[in-house]
Predict the structure.
Amino acid sequence: MAANPTDPTLIYDGECGICQQSVALLRRWDREHVLHYIPFQDAAGVARHGRGIALPALAAAMHLVLPDGRVYAGADAIPELLRLLPGKRWLAPLFAIPGVLPVARRIYAQIAARRHCLVRGIPGR
């Protein structure tokens, strides 16, 4: 099913095992099918939904593209993703606690820099 350009879209690394596992978890949580998921390797999908985000940026971190044009990358996308998922909205305010988002950014950056060494891609997904 083709995504509507007005759907919130998560662009991620489709060859990264951690990214694939994270998207699988989000899909389970996304029971109302609020989000559209595009691996950054899908050039046509990124052209439609990527708002001109440069390929090196897409390769470095996940990007959440919202219908109003806002784009959140890396750990900054996490509270926004949680706000979009009805059963998980209660978790989003935790990122407003002083210090939580900066720590999440550091952890995300460390994992993103090593993601291909930590978990290999899952074939067939």
